[in-house]
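Structure (tokenized):
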């Protein structure tokens, strides 16, 4: 069966040109997917759409500094209409590089939450020495409670499984690895995660553990998660720039750089955020993919790949089953 994906052409810093370029490239190479391009009439001028593309024209879009509460009121915006296509069953997934808070609001109130989920979470794959780990939450939910963090963990585990982790190890981001570290909330979350996941939960982890391969899932609130993620992105850019500068200093450095070029290319690919393209808002009834606000055509292409995989793997249904299993197990006095 053909997968159907809506894409918000006006979301992101480089919209609409880079969004359209990435979408068209993906459509031409993935004939088993039908793309619904949601944009302004001007977005389609002079463009010859492939057969597996359909345009959805509207007259409004959300700026990158939009307030989330305003996003759900502007029902003619490209983002709102893209999410409504999922709600109405026209498409299976939506991709947007627009404002994170606005997309979370549309995902929550337009697409709708899975029963039993209090808040959807933004789960992001982070490069590590063991390929990657999934961080949840990475910026969508700043102020959270224990039950939210438990649900983030359950959903992130299912996402990690989809990406290839068979038995994901879980860690709670904290200021130390000792069991009694952190605020009262962290101490309570520690006990709950241990109860639910048992040996799968390895305990508290610090920021410097995220990239070491120690864990496959990192559970945290959106404030700490976003700070950690952006810090890692900054360090990756710093290392890349330092290597470039050092290789230009003399002839020996240039020769060494030429010999090490395959290694440098591999490193660049590893830390390039465009590799993943986008990540899921998990906990909603459909597949909603948030692409980086600064996405270019390569990142958008990869974000659409992420959306396609989410549809193929039936990620929302797997999360629904996982939440029900934990809920039923805890109510019956058992463990998962």
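Design, position by position:
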């Amino acid at each position: 069966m053909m997968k159907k994906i809506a894409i918000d052409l006006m979301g992101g810093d480089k919209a609409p040109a880079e969004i359209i370029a990435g979408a068209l490239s993906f459509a031409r190479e993935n004939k088993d997917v039908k793309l619904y391009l949601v944009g302004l009439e001007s977005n389609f001028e002079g463009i010859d759409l492939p057969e597996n593309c359909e345009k959805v024209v509207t007259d409004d879009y959300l700026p990158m500094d939009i307030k989330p509460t305003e996003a759900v009121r502007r029902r003619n915006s490209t983002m709102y209409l893209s999410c409504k296509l999922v709600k109405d069953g026209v498409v299976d997934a939506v991709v947007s590089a627009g404002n994170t808070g606005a997309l979370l609001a549309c995902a929550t109130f337009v697409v709708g939450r899975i029963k039993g989920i209090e808040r959807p979470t933004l789960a992001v794959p982070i490069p590590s020495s063991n390929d990657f780990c999934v961080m949840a939450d990475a910026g969508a939910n700043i102020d959270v409670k224990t039950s939210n963090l438990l649900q983030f963990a359950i959903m992130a585990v299912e996402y990690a499984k989809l990406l290839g982790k068979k038995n994901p190890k879980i860690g709670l981001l904290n200021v130390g690895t000792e069991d009694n570290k952190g605020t009262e909330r962290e101490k309570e979350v520690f006990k709950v995660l241990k109860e639910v996941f048992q040996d799968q939960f390895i305990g508290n982890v610090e920021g410097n553990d995220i990239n070491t391969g120690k864990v496959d899932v990192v559970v945290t609130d959106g404030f700490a998660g976003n700070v950690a993620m952006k810090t890692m992105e900054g360090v990756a850019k710093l290392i890349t720039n330092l290597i470039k500068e050092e290789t230009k200093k003399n002839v020996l450095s240039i020769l060494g750089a030429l010999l090490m070029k395959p290694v440098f290319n591999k490193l660049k690919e590893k830390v390039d955020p465009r590799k993943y393209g986008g990540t899921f808002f998990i906990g909603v009834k459909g597949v909603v993919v948030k692409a980086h606000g600064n996405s270019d055509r390569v990142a958008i292409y990869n974000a659409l790949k992420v959306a396609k995989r989410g549809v193929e793997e039936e990620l929302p249904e797997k999360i629904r089953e996982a939440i029900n299993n934990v809920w039923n197990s805890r109510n019956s006095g058992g463990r998962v």
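Reviewer-requested clarification: The mean pLDDT is 89. The domain at 3-117+283-314 is CATH 3.40.718.10 (Isopropylmalate Dehydrogenase).
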